[in-house]
Design brief:
The chain has helices spanning 2-16, 19-36, 46-66, 70-73, 77-99, 111-122, 125-138, 154-173, 175-178, 185-196, 202-207, 212-234, 262-278, 301-322; strands spanning 102-105, 238-241, 250-251, 254-255. By secondary structure, it is mainly alpha-helical.
Length: 328
C-alpha cells in the first residue's frame, strides 16, 4: 500500500504544479530534445536554456508542496539576488585568472551577445543553489539532525577569520598546491562577521546543535554541481578543466574529486550573500534560510545594478582575455 501511495505522488505533484512550473518543465524537456538533435542555437546556449527552466520548475515544486515559494514570498528581492549572483561568481573568476583551473571553449564570437550570456549564466548560480536548498527543505530533509552544542568565543571567531584569510591567500601565492582552499575561504572569513551583526550564521547553527541548514546547503551544492557538469558536458559552448594532480579520472568534464568543491562552495555563496544583506546591498531574501531583521533599508536596485555593472564590464574583458580559449 505504501509503495502504491509513493508511486502516485509524482502525478499528483504534476497536477498541483502552477502553470509556470508546467511551462518550465515542458521547456526543459523540449530543450533537451533539441540539444541532442543539435538544432539551431540550442547546443550553443544550452546552459541558459537548461538552468532557467530548472530554477522556475524547482520554485514551482516548492509552491505546490508548501503553498508558497522563494519567488512568491519576496519577489522584490529576486532581482537583487540575480545581480549579486553575477558578481559573486565573478569573484571566483578573478581567482581563476591565477588558478587557471577552468577555461571556456566555443563561445559565441559576437562580444555583446557573449557578455549578455555571461550575465544571464552567472545570474543562475545563487538562485540555483538557494532554491535547491529550499526544495530539500520542503521535503524536511535533515530537519531532525542535531549536533553537540558548544560556546562560541571571541578567540574562535578570530581563528576562523585568520584561517579564512589564509585559505584565500595561499591559492594566490601557490596555486598549484593550494587551489582547493578557495572553495571555503570566504565562508570562514565572513561568517563571523554575520554572527557579530546578528545575521544568519552557520557557526551559530552549529553552536546551537542545529546543522540542518548547513546540511541542506551542502546537499544543494552537490545537486547543483552534478547538474552543472551534466548539462555542461552535452553543450557546444562549455567549460573544461585543467586541474593539477586530479584531472585524469573524470565524471563529465569535471575531475571526480572536483565534485567535493561544490558543497563548500554552496556554503560560501550563502555566507557571502548574507554578508551583502547585512551591508545593505540587498533586501531581505525570500528564502526561509535567509531572514534578516533590523538591517536597515537596502540600497535601490538601480544603484546596486549600476555599481555591479561597473565591476562586471572589466571582469568580462579579463575573462575574454584569460579564460576563454576559443570563439566560434
Amino acid at each position: 500500500m505504501r509503495k502504491r501511495e509513493q508511486s502516485n505522488r509524482f502525478p499528483l505533484l504534476l497536477r498541483a504544479l502552477p502553470g509556470y512550473g508546467l511551462a518550465a518543465l515542458a521547456a526543459l524537456l523540449c530543450f533537451e530534445v533539441l540539444l541532442f538533435a543539435r538544432a539551431g542555437p540550442v547546443p550553443r546556449f544550452f546552459y541558459l536554456l537548461a538552468w532557467w527552466p530548472y530554477i522556475f520548475l524547482a520554485d514551482a515544486v516548492i509552491m505546490a508542496r508548501t503553498g508558497s515559494s522563494p519567488m512568491s514570498r519576496h519577489i522584490r528581492a529576486f532581482p537583487y539576488l540575480l545581480v549579486w549572483s553575477v558578481s559573486i561568481w565573478l569573484i571566483f573568476e578573478l581567482f581563476n585568472f591565477r588558478l587557471s583551473n577552468w577555461h571556456y571553449i566555443h563561445l559565441v564570437s559576437h562580444t555583446p551577445v557573449r557578455w549578455i550570456g555571461y550575465a544571464l549564466s552567472f545570474a543562475t548560480v545563487l538562485p540555483g543553489l538557494f532554491i535547491t536548498s529550499e526544495l530539500l527543505a520542503s521535503y524536511k530533509l535533515f530537519e531532525a539532525s542535531s549536533t553537540h552544542r558548544f560556546t562560541i568565543t571571541p578567540r574562535l571567531l578570530v581563528v576562523l577569520q585568520i584561517a579564512g584569510g589564509l585559505m584565500l591567500a595561499l591559492p594566490l601565492l601557490c596555486p598549484e598546491y593550494f587551489f582547493p582552499l578557495v572553495w571555503g575561504g570566504f565562508a570562514l572569513l565572513l561568517d563571523p562577521v554575520n554572527l557579530r551583526m546578528g545575521a544568519p550564521s552557520l557557526l551559530k547553527d552549529l553552536s546551537l546543535g542545529r546543522p540542518a541548514r548547513i546540511l541542506r546547503l551542502l546537499a544543494a551544492g552537490l545537486v547543483c554541481g552534478f547538474l552543472w557538469e551534466f548539462w555542461n558536458f552535452w553543450a557546444a559552448a562549455k567549460w573544461i578543466y585543467t586541474v593539477p594532480f586530479v584531472g585524469d579520472i573524470k565524471l563529465f568534464e569535471m575531475p571526480v574529486l572536483g565534485f567535493l568543491g561544490f558543497p563548500p562552495f554552496s556554503l560560501e555563496c550563502f555566507v557571502m550573500y548574507v554578508f551583502i544583506n547585512v551591508m545593505g546591498g540587498a533586501p531581505v531574501a525570500g528564502f526561509s534560510d535567509i531572514r534578516l531583521e533590523g538591517c536597515g533599508k537596502p540600497a535601490g536596485l538601480a544603484t546596486v545594478l549600476i555599481l555591479n555593472v561597473l565591476f562586471w564590464l572589466p571582469a568580462f574583458c579579463l575573462v575574454d582575455r584569460l579564460t576563454v580559449l576559443s570563439l566560434d
